[in-house]
Write a structure and sequence with these properties.
9 helices, mainly alpha, 193 residues, Heme Oxygenase, Chain A
């Protein structure tokens, strides 16, 4: 008889957000952001708006205590550099209010979406390279972490798994992750409107 351990908190979070995540991925690909630099800059603008809203989370001392490398995970500066590299005017996208670190579990839900996008960026980087962009020009924010994408992601999810949470905290984290996926979709739709 084989023992199947219970899923970890990060695995439960992944399962609880799989449908909304898949729907967002399909929507982004339908927008065809890698068909031209002009379309890619629209994708970058949505990324910029999303990550700017999360900036308070990356700077929050309580979150930095839980995730020691949180500051270096912030991709706001690399997205801005990517926009500057391309030299095309980005569309105006309503940024909305910044995400405030109301509680740790809510913040972790939002960060889960931002950090998860780094893991999936390997595919996006290949698409960006087809239109002449690289990790040194125009696609910095899609670059892998020096430790590798998988190792960087596992380090982050280990922090989620180790966080002290009640079932109610976990439910707030899941709701926040769903809100983050919804926010990015709205920003992408606005950028490509």
């Amino acid at each position: 008889m084989t023992y199947d351990p219970a899923p970890s908190r990060s695995q439960r979070l992944k399962a609880a957000t799989a449908t909304i995540h898949d729907t967002l991925d399909q929507r982004i690909m339908a927008l065809d952001p890698f068909s031209s630099p002009a379309r890619y800059v629209r994708f970058l603008r949505a990324q910029q708006a999303f990550h700017a809203a999360l900036a308070p989370l990356y700077a929050a001392p309580t979150l930095r205590a839980l995730i020691p490398d949180l500051t270096e995970r912030d991709r706001t500066a690399s997205i801005a550099a990517d926009l500057a590299d391309i030299g095309l005017p980005p569309p105006v996208v309503p940024d909305g209010a910044p995400i405030e670190p109301v509680d740790t579990s809510t913040a972790l839900g939002w960060l889960y979406v931002a950090e998860g996008s780094s893991l999936g960026a390997a595919f996006l980087l290949k698409a960006a390279q087809r239109i002449g962009l690289t990790v040194d020009h125009g696609a910095r924010h899609l670059a892998a972490h020096r430790d590798g994408r998988a190792a960087h992601w596992r380090a982050f999810t280990a922090r989620i798994d180790a966080a002290d949470m009640t079932p109610e905290d976990e439910a707030r984290m899941i709701a926040a992750a769903r809100d983050a996926f919804t926010r990015f979709r709205a920003l992408a739709d606005a950028a490509f409107a």
